[in-house]
Design brief:
Number of domains: 1
Protein name: ABC transporter permease subunit
Low-confidence stretches: 6-10
InterPro entries: BP-dependent_transpt_permease, MetI-like, MetI-like_sf, OppC_N
Family: Belongs to the binding-protein-dependent transport system permease family. OppBC subfamily.
CATH architecture: Orthogonal Bundle
Keywords: Cell inner membrane, Cell membrane, Membrane, Peptide transport, Protein transport, Transmembrane, Transmembrane helix, Transport
Mean pLDDT: 86
Order of helices and strands: HHHHHHHHHHHHH
Distance between the termini: 42 Å
Largest sheet: none
Strand content: under 5%
Subcellular location: Cell inner membrane; Cell membrane
């Protein structure tokens, strides 16, 4: 080969996209996921800026406008776009402030359950003969009870309230992370890169958190997204039963509980919070499907 020969110019068509662009390209192919993302951006915006965006204080009572219907119905008032509840409080303002609480419960409970769940799953995967059976049998016992029943039992022991609701939902979500992490770890332990790391002298902790865990994050991120929607549902269910966030704090489940006696007289008092829960959970689940498609190499290659 001639040493003076010039190296061929790089072909612009061989430039690879950044990981973020590649992820967005795979995610945006799922139109439902994009729609869910847009809806959740609106909800998050309303939740973050509720004190400035909401037209009224969520606890302010307008005694002259009890059970006022939404603006588009007969008897509606332009001052209350979505109507008022049985105490004359603006529903739109309460939904916006309730979004703050519902999203905070979902996010906090996911973090509280995911971190110990990943740690226990790593221990179970790296110690399949000692710690693994003990951890997995404990998770099996927790899974033997319905999730809502277990959450109700935990809140009944700890007492109703915001913090206890978060703790109960986090405990209920824990087994899913443990089982998923253990399954992912067991699938990675026999791979060549793990064997190479062992031969290079990597310790157990380095193998856990540096070598194996990053390659298990894709399914865990999807699980966290789906657990987020489940946490919103569980928080709403506990609030509906009177075991979650206590009135007059605006929370979607609590709003449903306080309005159930007026479902025949004023359908909007029940329907609007329920519809908000439905659309939020649906949007998050659609986003989870999009994340699964974007993070799974097999699905990306098949598309």
């Amino acid at each position: 080969m001639n040493a003076n020969a010039k190296a061929p110019a790089s072909d612009p068509s061989l430039v690879y996209p950044s990981p973020l662009k590649e992820f967005w390209h795979a995610f945006s192919r799922n139109k439902g996921a994009v729609g869910g993302l847009l809806f959740m951006l609106v909800i998050v915006f309303c939740a973050l800026f509720a004190p400035w965006v909401a037209p009224h204080d969520p606890s302010e009572q307008f005694r002259d406008f009890l059970l006022t219907p939404p603006l588009w119905l007969e008897g509606g008032n332009s001052q209350f776009l979505l109507g008022t509840d049985e105490l004359g409080r603006d529903l739109l303002s309460r939904l916006m402030h309730g979004a703050r609480l519902s999203l905070m419960i979902g996010l906090t409970s996911v973090l509280i359950s995911m971190i110990p769940g990943i740690f226990l799953g790593l221990l179970a995967g790296f110690s399949p003969t000692r710690l693994g059976p003990v951890i997995m049998r404990l998770m099996d016992i927790m899974l033997a009870l319905p999730s809502l029943l277990l959450a109700v039992a935990i809140v009944a022991i700890l007492g109703p309230g915001l913090i206890n609701t978060v703790i109960a939902i986090a405990i209920v979500s824990l087994p899913a992370y443990v089982r998923l992490t253990r399954a992912a770890v067991m699938g990675e332990l026999n791979r060549d890169y793990v064997t190479a790391s062992r031969l290079a002298g990597a310790g157990t902790l380095r193998l856990m958190f540096v070598t194996v865990l990053p390659n298990c994050m894709a399914p865990l991120i999807v699980q966290a997204t789906l657990s987020f929607s489940s946490a919103i549902l569980d928080a709403a269910a506990l609030g509906f039963l009177g075991l979650g966030v206590q009135p007059p704090t605006p929370e979607w489940g609590t709003m449903l509980a306080s309005a159930r006696d007026y479902i025949e007289r004023a359908w909007w008092v029940v329907s609007l919070p329920g519809l908000t829960i439905l659309l939020s959970v649906l949007a998050i689940n659609l986003m989870g499907d999009g994340l699964r498609d974007a993070l799974d190499p097999k699905l990306k290659n098949a598309a």
